């Protein structure tokens, strides 16, 4: 696989027309992450709510991302995949994405679990690209930790 085959139509679409981009209010936590390897950056905000069932739900994920198409697309895909879900529903999604991305291309992703994130799986063969893909996911996890600290 060459590097150009990493950039699928789904990645280009999310890069050209990113979903949920732009920092919005209200938010419960804001984090800023930088990938020192390539200079990609993301500022990410998370807004949580509690549903009628009492489960904590992601009401909004907004972000400002700069860097390569892979990292910007990942932020778009992730935010669209996670908004509206409960934290319990998100755990297996995030775990699967992390596992697949660290498998160095030896594990196929499950589109039923990660949706458009399947387009990012090719990056698993390139360790530097794994960081690009996972930066927004790590920022989301850090924002969740931040919300728990602020809420304590």
TrEMBL record:
NCBIfam families to which the protein is assigned, alphabetical: SUF_scaf_2
Superkingdom: Bacteria
Protein name as it appears in the record: Fe-S cluster assembly sulfur transfer protein SufU
Positions of the NIF system FeS cluster assembly NifU N-terminal domain: 7-132
Organism: Brachybacterium rhamnosum
Lineage of origin: Bacteria, Bacillati, Actinomycetota, Actinomycetes, Micrococcales
InterPro entries from the UniProt entry: NIF_FeS_clus_asmbl_NifU_N
